[in-house]
Amino acid sequence: MPERDDFMGTQPVRVLAGNLLAWFEGKYPEFRQELKEIGRTFGATRVIKYVCNEEPIVGHKQGNLTPYVTVAEGQIGIHETFLSYVWGLSYGFLVIFDEQIHGPSTGREPSHGKPLGYFTSRGYEVLNHALGLIAEFETWPPNLPNPENCAAEDRFFVEKANAIYLAAVDFILCHELAHVACGHLKRRKETDQRGEHITPAEIKKLEGEADKWAFDCVSRGIRGPERSATTVGFGAVTGLGSLLFLNRGLTSGTHPDKDDRIGSVLSGLSLDEKDSLWGVAAAFYMAWDQRFQAGLDISGEFDTYQALVQAILGQLESIKREEQDRQMGLD
Ligand SMILES: [Zn+2]
User: Fold this and answer.
1) d(CA 194, ligand 1 centre) in Å
2) So what's the pLDDT on residue 284?
3) What's the CA-to-centroid distance between 255 and ligand 1, angstroms?
4) 317-326 mean pLDDT
5) Residue 223, SS3 per DSSP
6) How much distance in Å is there from the Cα of 139 to the middle of ligand 1?
7) Which of 88, 150, 214, 327 has the smallest CB count inside 10 Å?
C-alpha cells in the first residue's frame, strides 16, 4: 500500500489507496500490533505493494494480475486494474441490487431523492466496464461514476460503493495475509527446501484455511454504521465474487469451489433468510450465468432471497459435476 502518496496510479481508484491502508490496518484496535507480530514471526513485509500499470487482468504469460503474496518474502501485492475491477463490481452490484431487485420489492421511496431505478443503467454500465477490464484494459470513461470525480447526484451510491470496495479489498488482503500468518509460506518454503512439492489437495486445504482466517479477521472489525455487518459481508462476497467472472469454471484443483467460498462467508454471517446479502449473492450468480451462458433457470417464485440462492446452488452443483466430468475426460 502506498505509504503517504495517496495519489499514485493512473486510475480513479487511486484516490482510495490511502483509505485502503487505513481500513485494513484500523480493523480493530489490536490489529496493528498483530500485524507487527506476524511480521516479526515470519519476517514478512508489512507494506502492501500497489502495482500500477494499465494492463488487463488476464492474458499475461506470467499469470493473471490478481492479488498475490510471494512465497520467498511474504510480500503482498495488488494491481490497480484489479482494484478498478473490484470498485466497478462494488458499485454495479450495489446499484443493480438496490434499484432493480430490492427497491421495487419494498415499495419505499429511495433515499437518494431520485425516482427508483434512476441509477440502474449506470449500475450496468459500470459493471460492464469493470467486466471488460478482465480481458482488455480501457481507461475509465469520465462520464461513468467513479471514486475520483463524480457528479453531485452520483455521490449517494459512489460513497456507499467506496465502503463496499474497501471491505472487499480488506477481505482479499486478509486472505493473502493469512498465508503468512497461518504459516503457509513457511511450510511451502520448507517443502521446497526438501526438494518436495506440496500437493494440489494440500494447497486447496490451505486456501480454505486462508478464507476462514480472513473472514474471522474482517468480522472482528464489524462495528458501528461505517463497518456494519452488511458492508463487511457485502465486501467479502464481492472479494470472492470477483473470481466468478475471470473464467467460467467454478471448480479448480487448487482452490475450494468458488460458490462454496462465497457460501462459507454467508453462513459465517448467520444471516436471516430475508437478508439482502442473499440477494446480492444471487445477483453475482445471475451475472455469472449471463456472462458464460451456463443455463441457470430462476424462473420460479421465491419467498426469500435465501430460497433463491438455494435454488441457484442446487443447479450449480450439477453444473460443477458436468465440469468435473469434462475435466476427467480422457482427451
Ligand atoms: Zn490464497
Assistant:
1) 22
2) 98
3) 8
4) 89
5) strand
6) 29
7) 327
- Which residue blocks in 100-154 are alpha helix, DSSP H? 103-106, 120-132
**Percent of the chain topping pLDDT 70:** 96
Span from the CA of 145 to the centroid of ligand 1 (angstroms): 31
CA of 176 to the centre of ligand 1 (A): 6
Separation of CA 175 and ligand 1 centre (Å): 6
For the chain, the domains span 4-327
Angle between helices 229-241 and 80-96 (to 10 degrees): 120
Distance 260 CA to ligand 1 centre (A): 15
- Is the model's pLDDT at 2 over the cut of 60? no
Angle at 21 between CA 51 and CA 203, to 5 degrees: 65
Cβ atoms within 10 A of the Cβ of 140, count?
22
Instruction: Give me the amino acid identity at 61.
Output: K
Average pLDDT over residues 207-213: 97
Burial of 278 (C-beta count, 10 Å sphere; 0-12/13-18/19+): buried
CA 218 – ligand 1 centroid, Å: 16
- Residue 272, Cβ neighbours under 10 Å: how many? 12
What's the pTM?
Answer: 0.95
Please tell me the distance between residue 331's alpha carbon and the centre of ligand 1 in angstroms: 30
What is the spatial distance between Cα 228 and Cα 291, in angstroms, rounded to a whole number?
31
Q: Whole-angstrom Cα distance, residue 133 to residue 195?
A: 38
Is 311:325 a contact under the CB 8 Å cutoff?
Answer: no
Band of pLDDT at residue 47, cut at 50, 70 and 90: confident
Instruction: Tell the residue number behind the cell numbers 510471494, with chain if given.
Output: 70
> 207 C-alpha to center of ligand 1: Å?
5
Question: What cell numbers appear for 241 in the block?
Answer: 465474487
Residue identified by cell 460458490 is 259
C-alpha cell at 178: 493469512
